[in-house]
Amino acid sequence: DRGTSVMLSLLRQQGITSVLEDSSGNGGASVSCYAAAGGMSATIMAPASTSPSKTVQMQAHGAKVELIPGSRQACADAAVAAHGRDDGTLFYASHNWQPFFLQGTKTLAYELWEDLGFHAPDNIIIPTGAGSNILGCDLGFSELLRTGEIKALPRLFCAQPLVCSPIASQILQKLQQDDGKTVPGEWNVPVKTVAEGTSIAQPVRLEECVDAVVRSGGSAVRVMEDAISAATLELARLGLYTEPTCAQAAAAYHELLATGFIKPSETTVVVLTSTGVKATPGVAHMLGVIV
C-alpha cells in the first residue's frame, strides 16, 4: 500500500486515468483499492490460481480482473503485451517496474526508525517476492545513514520459499553460503509454494535486491514448506493472523537464530505484510478444516 499510494498519486498527476497491474494477488488488491480512491479505472491480471479472497477484493473495488492461465511469469508477459490497449489509454503500472513505487516502500524504513526511538534495528527479516521491501528498506535506511541519523545500516535478510527462491538463491551463491537445501529444477515444480504472494520466478530487480542484501551484511533463508505452515499457525496462536506469504519471515527468524546468524540479544524486526483472511483456503487446509 505504501508504494501503491505514491505510484498512483504520481501517475494521476501525470494524467493517467486507466492502469493495468499484474499481480499474484496482494499487489493487485492494493492497486485496485487506491485506483478506486483516486477515481482511476484498474485492470488486474492475476494467475488463474490466485486465492479467490484476493480477486474478490479487486472486483469489490471496481477493478476488471483477468485470470491468466499458467505461471506467474505468463501473467507478467500478458500484462506487458496489454500495455496501450483500449485505444492507447491502458497504462502498465507495474509495482515491480515503477521507480516511484519504491519511494513509497522506503517509508517502511522511516517508520521502523521512528518506532524504535530513532534508532535502526540490528536485523530486518523480509518476506520476498519481487523484492520491493528489500529495496525500500535499502533506500530509506541509506538516506538515514547519509544524513547522520543512524550509525550503520541494519542487516537485511531475504526470506523466500525454497521451491521458488530466485533472489535468496542468488544471495547465497554470491556470499558462498551453503544451506544444504536442494532447489527444484524449475521453480514451483512439482510442488507449488503455499506462500503464493512471493511466488515470483523471474523478479525484474533481482540483481538490485542481491546487492542491497549483501551491502547490508545480511543474507538469505530459503524456507521449507512445512516450516512456512508451522510459522503461520504459530503466529496465529500468538494473536497475529497472517498469510503464509509473510509468515515465512517468522520461520526464517527461527532458522537464523538456530544457525547463529542473529542473536537473541539483538533488535530484530520480522516484517509481516498481509492478513491471513486473504489465505483462508490455505490456512483451512493446514488445520484440516473444510471450507
Entry keywords:
291 residues; alpha/beta; four-stranded parallel beta sheet; 13 helices; 47% helix
List the helices and strands and how they pair.
Layout: H1 2-13, E1 18-22, H2 26-37, E2 41-47, H3 52-60, E3 64-68, H4 72-82, H5 85-88, E4 90-92, H6 99-105, H7 107-115, E5 123-127, H8 132-146, E6 155-161, H9 166-175, H10 206-216, E7 219-223, H11 225-236, H12 244-259, E8 268-270, H13 280-287
Helix pairs in contact: 1-6, 2-3, 6-8, 7-8, 8-10, 9-10, 11-12
What does this structure look like?
This protein has 291 residues and is an alpha/beta fold. The protein has helices at residues 2-13, 26-37, 52-60, 72-82, 85-88, 99-105, 107-115, 132-146, 166-175, 206-216, 225-236, 244-259, 280-287; strands at 18-22, 41-47, 64-68, 90-92, 123-127, 155-161, 219-223, 268-270. The strands form two sheets. The chain has a four-stranded parallel beta sheet with strand order 3-2-1-4, with helices on both faces. Strands 7-6-5-8 form a four-stranded parallel beta sheet, sandwiched between helices. Strand 5, helix 8 (132-146) and strand 6 (155-161) form a beta-alpha-beta unit. Helix 7 crosses helix 8 (132-146) and helix 11 crosses helix 12 (244-259). The longest helix is centred in the C-terminal third of the chain and has 16 residues, at 244-259. It is globular, with a radius of gyration of 19 Å. The two termini are 29 Å apart.
